[in-house]
Amino acid sequence: MTKPSPAARERIVAGAADMISRRGLNATSIREMAKHARAPLGSTYHYFPEGKQQLATEAVRYTGEWVARRLRKELEAGPASGLRAFLGLWRKIVVDSDFRAGCPVLAVSIEEPPTDETPAALVAAADVFDAWESLLADSLCEHGAEREQAAQLATLVVAAVEGTVAMCRAKRSTQPLDRTAEQLQALVLAAIKG
């Protein structure tokens, strides 16, 4: 018997995140996620014995941390740099996928849960949005913005970028992202100068 591979598990999670970003959670089966990740279905159930919701939760967390790592790095140069990186990351995703992929965190957030209970993937999505907002708000505060203004602006940035990514997919254009970027940059610069 072979030893489980962390790389194989991560490949399945990354593949699931990509599928969810393209088709949404409800339209994607665990079989399709495994196939997309080029993983045997049995391995998928081995790593995720609770099934699709467990895999979706991990995919959301994976995406959240993947984005947060890039954001943290760019925020070292200040909130304007962090914002440019955040916008650039999503621009790359929509353009490189020919406007077929968006954000799996948003995809999980907007779909109706299968039961009356709050699924773990939805809780993970809320945590991811909170983490991104906190990173942005902390950077804004470190560069002179007042705490409440920083929190509000961070929420606006995350909400605007997530919504704009969806608009880019629908319009098959980066124009919404370009317009949003310009306005968000102005708001960030005003907050740290004020």
Automatic annotation (TrEMBL):
Stretches assigned to the HTH tetR-type domain: 6-66
Keyword flag Glycoprotein: no
Record keywords, A-Z: DNA-binding, Transcription, Transcription regulation
InterPro entries on file: Homeodomain-like_sf, HTH_TetR, Tet_transcr_reg_TetR-rel_C_sf, YxaF_TetR_C
Residue ranges flagged as DNA-binding region: 29-48
An MF annotation (GO) of this entry: DNA binding
Domain of life, source organism: Bacteria
Gene3D superfamilies referenced in this protein's UniProt entry, alphabetically: Tetracycline Repressor, domain 2
Keyword Cell inner membrane: no
Descriptive protein name: AcrR family transcriptional regulator
